[in-house]
Amino acid sequence: MNKAQKKKEERTKLFEDVYSGIIPERVPIGAKLTLEATLEYSNISVGKTLWNMDSEEISNAIHKVCEMIPTDTCTVGGIVKTPHHFKILGSKGYYMSKTGYMQHADVETLYANEYKAFIQSPYDFIVEKCLPRNFKNLEGSGAKQSLVVSKALKAYYDHSAKWQSIIGSINQEYGYFTQPAGSATLCQSSFDFIGDFLRSVKGIYMDVRKQPEMIIEACEAMMPMQVKRGLPNNPHKLGHVFMPLHLGTYLRRKDFEKLYWPSFSKFINIMAEHGQTASLFCEHDWMRYLDLLQELPENTRILFEYGDPKEIKEKLGKRHILSGLYPITYLKTATKQQCIDKAKELIDIMAPGGKYVFDFDKSAMSLDTINIENFTAVIEYVAENTKYHNAGQLVNDSSGNNSIKLDTSVEPFSADLYTDWSTIPKNDIETQLASDVNNSLQQYEELLFKMIFAIV
Prior knowledge:
Radius of gyration: 23 Å
CATH topology of the largest domain: TIM Barrel
Shape: globular
Distance between the termini: 44 Å
CATH architecture of the largest domain: Alpha-Beta Barrel
Strand content: 5-15%
Strand order of the largest sheet: 3-4-5-6-7
Number of strands: 7
Number of helices: 20
Largest sheet: 5 strands, parallel
């Protein structure tokens, strides 16, 4: 076993223990820099690199920070959006800013009077109505649309494959913990998806006042599609469905409980029943919802942006796996020793009893938001000073099963514009080879399905 393999084994054991209710040898570290911040550290143009995806240049920039910062998962990560497919599609929602960063505009593609049509078949409505409204090059004839989608699909997967190749090589060289192949997905809550990508933020908050029942019906109608998005090919306790939670904290408590929580909690329970853990990024301040978070399936992974660490630990620390809360902006304004002291203060609260992964309250989106020397000093402190004296022991019981049993029944996903190849008529030889034929053809349907929810 070489050095990298040994490191990977050690790091994987840290996360495996935490996720299995065992005190790990030390606190695992999940902090990351974005690719954009990494490129800036090496004085490489962000915009030019996102366009040319120069593998050697990107790899060199990533190596530079990986050599310096001793994280347990790859030091560079997050959602990498390249501009190629968005440009081909004529995107109104995503565009590259003057800094080279990809930006998301608030675009309305589901109109206030269209909920009933959306509820009939959310996927068909998204493909037929929302995509052409969001992408100007999908307007017009079917022939033109087909050509544009074909080019966009090729561009999306070409650059996704290039990024995966780069990061896969880095993971192998440095021995980082990685989730098992096919065990990680991304899915927004239904309310967030409607607000962020269909109705617009302004539109959905208007609907909260004027037609809340339509939101409830739409969130429930989306459930088969959402479950399909969230369940990976290979559910695994080391994998997850990552969910950035965006709009819930801007609702009144009674509206949150009525409009946001039911479909959200149902989805997470469905994932848990299939062996897929939810990894939540609770954006903004979720303190008034801690009692609801207690009801989620045990060992849900929750990264908090803001909040009181003591109260969060007290209410959720025996039940869920906690992370976040270290203000990343502190790295820019404080001295190195102050940053280390801040980490020690947080760890003293959050680490006892296990079920804790160190991370900042958000990723470093750009280099000007942090002092990278302070970032490095904090990670080094955590890596060297958070060993547990009782490693290997079982974590204290979470005081019984606090989950409220929900109705997790959900219809199988189907849509007119989604082909289930197992239902398509076959000739004699195709019937004899039905399993191979179905699998071979279905993979292309899944590629398109996945891309649609990466661009919508």
